[in-house]
């Protein structure tokens, strides 16, 4: 057999390549086959390496161990405490309104169990593939540049060429890109319309408020025509608001139907809202808030849990709205105290400016509100149920009917 001499550089090149393949746990015969096929070496050249397979494996194990220690150290130095490469956003980068709108719609309709941050992470990872590649390319360049010797540099380079580098990096504590979703959300400000409805109200196709309290031209405040058969229509978000604020439906009817003066700014605000509502049928109670940063995450998290209560700051604008035909009452900040309402009473949420709409109109499209209309820092959350006024609504209807009948009789006598 002819004698063949291989240079040290050639041996290092072979060793470098074999270090990649040895991890595949080839048998001795399979490893020889790999050497022949992948490196196109003859048996003479393999013999000229001067090693037997045991020596090769031991040599490679030593080199791999040294490289793994270096990679572990580099991950700790280059990445954050979670082993991630940080992505940093410009001040004018924002999260997608459309994505958040779609996610909230799916939460309300129980069509997802994904967290908002995970939804945004998946979307950003998909649409920022080039940015991710650039961030990781910088990391690879750092690994090669700071490698303590040429053997490790060559080994990393070969791993990268064989698309195995990130397998090793993940084994050494690397966890990919941290897209800094919370930082992105800090740049994101949303004008949000939160719309409420009780279960019974939804069963009546959101027509209960107009039926029970009237609008700008019809019953009950011009011609009273409600009786005990209509008591179910009083199961609506507006009635809940009245009771939660410490007042009664009787007070509202006294003002609307009987024309009695009220000293309560809340009752006055409710009545003004009702008598300015031009909706002929469907209406809903809405609050109007500004969400940004952590507020967006907290709102979505509580919406996803679906229990507990949302606490709305008393200085928040509130009012009757019709998203289907684009009408409203007179929204204003007429609350007397914080509005504490069950999270599961939230029927719809609109983000102004989101194009993937699951609704028809927004308050801004109808009224053209200015930015201060949406209250910032307006929401909090609690597990404690609020105290609400307990009122016999059948009795209320009977009393109002009796007073309306009495007034009618007096008017008839005067005529």
Descriptive report:
This protein is α+β, with helices and mostly antiparallel strands and 415 residues long. The chain has helices spanning 8-22, 28-38, 43-48, 53-78, 97-108, 116-127, 129-146, 150-161, 165-171, 181-186, 199-203, 208-213, 237-244, 249-256, 265-275, 294-305, 363-367, 393-414; strands at residues 85-86, 177-178, 189-196, 284-292, 309-312, 317-322, 327-328, 339-342, 346-351, 375-376, 379-382. The protein has three domains: 8-72; 85-186, no CATH class; 189-394, no CATH class. It has 18 helices and eleven strands. Strand 6 and strand 7 form a beta hairpin.
What does this entry show, briefly?
With 415 residues, the protein is of the alpha+beta class. The protein has helices spanning 8-22, 28-38, 43-48, 53-78, 97-108, 116-127, 129-146, 150-161, 165-171, 181-186, 199-203, 208-213, 237-244, 249-256, 265-275, 294-305, 363-367, 393-414; strands spanning 85-86, 177-178, 189-196, 284-292, 309-312, 317-322, 327-328, 339-342, 346-351, 375-376, 379-382.
Low-confidence stretches: none
Give the fraction of residues assigned to helices: 40-55%
- Percent of residues in β-strands: 5-15%
Q: Which oligomeric state applies?
A: single chain
How many structurally independent domains? 3
By DSSP, the count of extended strands is 11
Spell out the helices and strands N to C: HHHHEHHHHHEHEHHHHHEHEEEEEHEEH
The overall average pLDDT, rounded, is 86
Q: What's the helix count?
A: 18
* Class based on secondary structure composition and strand pairing: alpha+beta
Distance between the termini: 134 Å
Approximate shape: rod-shaped
Main sheet properties: 6 strands, mixed
Rg, Cα atoms, Å: 35 Å
């Amino acid at each position: 057999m002819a004698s063949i001499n291989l240079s040290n550089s050639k041996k290092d090149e072979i060793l470098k390549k074999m270090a990649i393949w040895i991890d595949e746990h080839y048998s001795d015969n399979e490893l020889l086959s790999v050497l022949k096929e992948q490196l196109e070496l003859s048996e003479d050249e393999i013999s000229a390496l001067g090693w037997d397979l045991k020596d090769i494996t031991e040599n490679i194990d030593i080199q791999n161990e040294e490289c793994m220690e270096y990679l572990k150290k580099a991950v700790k130095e280059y990445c954050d405490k979670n082993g991630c490469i940080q992505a940093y956003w410009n001040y004018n980068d924002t999260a997608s309104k459309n994505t958040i709108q779609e996610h909230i719609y799916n939460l309300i309709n129980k069509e997802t169990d994904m967290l908002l941050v995970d939804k945004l992470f998946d979307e950003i990872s998909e649409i920022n593939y080039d940015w991710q590649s650039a961030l990781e390319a910088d990391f690879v360049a750092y690994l090669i540049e700071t490698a303590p010797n040429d053997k490790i540099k060559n080994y990393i380079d070969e791993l990268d060429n064989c698309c195995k580098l990130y397998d090793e990096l993940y084994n050494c504590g690397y966890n990919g890109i941290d897209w800094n979703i919370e930082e992105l959300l800090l740049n994101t400000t949303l004008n949000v319309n939160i719309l409420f409805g009780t279960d019974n109200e939804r069963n009546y196709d959101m027509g209960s408020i107009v039926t029970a309290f009237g609008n700008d031209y019809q019953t009950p405040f011009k011609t009273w025509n409600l009786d005990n058969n209509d008591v179910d229509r009083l199961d609506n978000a507006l009635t809940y608001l009245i009771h939660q604020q410490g007042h009664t439906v009787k007070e509202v009817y006294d003002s609307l139907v009987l024309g009695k003066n009220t000293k309560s700014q809340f009752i006055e605000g409710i009545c003004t809202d009702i008598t300015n509502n031009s909706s002929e049928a469907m209406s809903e109670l809405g609050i109007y808030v500004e969400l940004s940063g952590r507020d967006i995450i907290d709102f979505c998290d509580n919406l996803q849990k679906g229990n507990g209560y949302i606490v709305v700051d008393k200085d928040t604008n509130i009012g009757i709205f019709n998203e289907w035909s684009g009408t409203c009452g007179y929204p204003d900040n007429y609350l007397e105290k914080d509005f504490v309402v069950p999270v599961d009473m939230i029927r719809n949420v609109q983000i102004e400016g989101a194009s993937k709409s699951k609704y028809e109109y927004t308050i801004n499209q109808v009224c053209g509100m200015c930015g201060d209309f949406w209250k910032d820092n307006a929401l909090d959350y609690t597990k404690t149920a609020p105290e609400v006024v307990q009122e016999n609504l059948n009795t209320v209807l009977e009393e109002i009917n009796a007073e309306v009948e009495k007034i009618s009789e007096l008017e008839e006598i005067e005529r």
